Amino acid sequence: MSGTWNNHFKHFRQYLLLEKSLAAPSIEAYLHDAEALRKWAELRGMNRNPEDFNLQDLMAFSAWLAEIGFSATSQARILSGIRGFYRFLVLQNEIPESPADFLEPPKTGRKLPVVLSPEEIDGMIAAVDRSKPEGERDVAMLETLYSCGLRVSELVGLKTTDIFAEDSYLRVIGKGNKERLVPIGGRALKHINLYRDAVRRHMNIQPGSRDIVFLNRRGGKLSRQSVFLLIKSLANKTGISKNISPHTFRHSFATHLVEAGADLRAVQEMLGHESITTTEIYTHLDHSFLADTIHKFHPRSH
To answer: What is the pLDDT at residue 152?
Structure first.
C-alpha cells in the first residue's frame, strides 16, 4: 500500500510545483495534509490506497481531526489540502470523481481583520522621524503599503524595474509566483522618488540587491521582520492600541476602497486574491462600518 501512496505523493509534488507554481512551504503543507490521511488509515488498519476511500471514510477522518484536538481553523485547512489531493487524483484519471468534493468543512467563525482609519494611518506616517536617513524610506514604504495593498513580502521584494511611474502602476510578484499589475497613487510615487534621490542613490548597495527598492542600512534587502517592528513601534508612538502588523495596511487599503464604493472584482484583482470569496470579507467590514455609523449618529439607536 505505501508504494502507491508514495507514488501519488511524488507526482502530486511535481504537479504542485510545475502546474500550480506553488512555493515550497505551500507544497509541503499539501503533502503534510495528505500524509495525515495516510496516518489515520494506518492507525485504523485500513490497508487501502487513497483512491479506494469514499465520502464516509473522509468524514470519519474529519471527525478524528476534531477528536485529537485540532481547532476548527486547522481542520478546515487540512480538509482543503485533502480536497486538493483528490482533485489531483481526478486529473490523473486515478478516480472518476472526488469523494472530497462533498466534504463539509467545520464552521470556523471567520474573524474580521483589524483595520486602521485614514487618520490613524496619517498619524503613523507623520510619526516617522525623517531626520534620520531611513525616515524617507519608512515613509515611502508605508505610503506604498497603503496605496497598493501589498503583502509585506511583496513590499520588501519590490524592484526598481517593477515601478512604471509614467503609467502609475507596479508589477507585483505575489503568492505562487503570480504576477499582477497594481495602480500606485501619486503620493506614494512622490515619496519613493524622494527616498531614491535623497537616500538610496548615496548608499553602498550590496551586489545582490541593486534592483531592490527598499534597502536596509547595509545596502541589502530589508527583512519582513524589520517592517513589522517599524509598524509596531509607530503604533506605540501614536497611541494606537489595536494589534496591527504590515498586513493591517493591506486590510485598510481594501476596506477603504469598498467603503468608498469600489467594485469588488477590481479590489480582488488589486489584492491578487484567487477567489472572490476571500475579498468578500471586506463587504462584511463595510457592513460593520455602516452599523457603527448608525449606532453613533441615528437618534433612535440608543
So the answer is: 92
Residue 157, pLDDT score: 94
Report if residue 128 sits inside a domain: yes
Domain that holds residue 193: 118-296
Q: Supply the CATH number for residue 151's domain.
A: 1.10.443.10
Q: Has residue 88 been placed in a domain?
A: yes
| pLDDT for residue 82 is more than 80 | yes
List, as own/partner pairs, every contact residues 52-59 make where C-beta atoms lie below 8 angstroms and the sequence separation is at least 24, other chains included.
53/99, 54/99, 55/99, 55/100, 55/102, 55/103, 57/99, 58/82, 58/99, 58/100, 58/103, 59/103
Q: Is 220 helix (H, G, I), strand (E, B) or coil?
A: coil
Q: Give catalytic residue positions.
A: 151, 175, 247, 250, 273, 282
Residue 46 lies in a domain: yes
For position 210, what pLDDT does the model report? 94
Is residue 186 scored above 70 in pLDDT?
Answer: yes
Tell me: pLDDT of 74 over 70: yes
The number of C-alpha atoms within 13 Å of 265 and in the hemisphere containing its C-beta is 0
pLDDT tens sequence across 142-163: 999 999 999 999 999 999 999 9
Degrees, nearest 5: CA angle 191-193-195:
70
Q: 219 and 146 share a domain?
A: yes
Secondary structure string (H, E, C) spanning 98-146: CHHHHCCCCCCCCCCCCCCCHHHHHHHHHCCCCCCHHHHHHHHHHHHHH
Residues in contact with 94: Cβ distance below 8 Å, sequence separation at least 6, in sequence order = 8, 51
Higher-pLDDT residue of 37, 294: 37
Q: Which three cell numbers stand for residue 206?
A: 550590496
Q: What is the pLDDT of residue 110?
A: 58
- What is the torsion angle, in degrees rounded to the nearest 10, for the CA atoms of residue 12, residue 88, residue 106 and residue 279? 100
All three cell numbers of 252? 485598510
